Amino acid sequence: MPTKKLDFKTGQYVVYPTQGVGKLIRIEEQTIGNQKIKMMVIDFDRNHMTLRVPVERAEISGLRPLSSARKMDEAIAAAKGKAGAKRMIWARRAAQYEENINSGDPMKLAEVVRDLQRRTATDTMTFSARQLYLRALERMAQEFAILHKMDLDEASDKIEDILGVPKEIDLNATDEDEEEVDETDEE
Description:
Elements: E1 13-16, E2 20-32, E3 35-44, E4 49-54, H1 58-61, E5 64-65, H2 69-79, H3 90-103, H4 106-116, H5 127-147, H6 152-163, H7 176-186
Antiparallel strand pairs: 1-2, 1-5, 2-3, 3-4
Helix pairs in contact: 2-4, 3-4, 3-5, 4-5, 5-6
């Protein structure tokens, strides 16, 4: 079965399925067991990690260039949809969500975000569901941030705004206006 040759350039952002978005910093040659192998060196700044992927195994490993802005918009639109059926027990659904996150595919990430996002401010999530949701959202936001030239937190907020995810209520917040009123009442 013929495989297409992936063409990556130094300085290009790429997606490694299990790690997210990284930057190809160089292609180097290493000798392993008397054999010279060309390796792509990818820096994942957010994870403080450097990964070396043999050029010949790039496609098999799932390494890919960033999605287009159009494909990312399609994924976000898919995440707006109605949540999928929840007839499976949680352990199986969690395993499926984990597999979708590790696929690196924006549409599969969107499925996880769609199924696990809070629909109203009073919706609650289990700890494990929240962790899966946040990982999927972060992976989507990594590509979105690069494509739209913004930082990761801005990208996450923007995606959640587009999806209409309600903001969490900060139970420790104080209302500064009330404090000012109290001070004027004392005088």
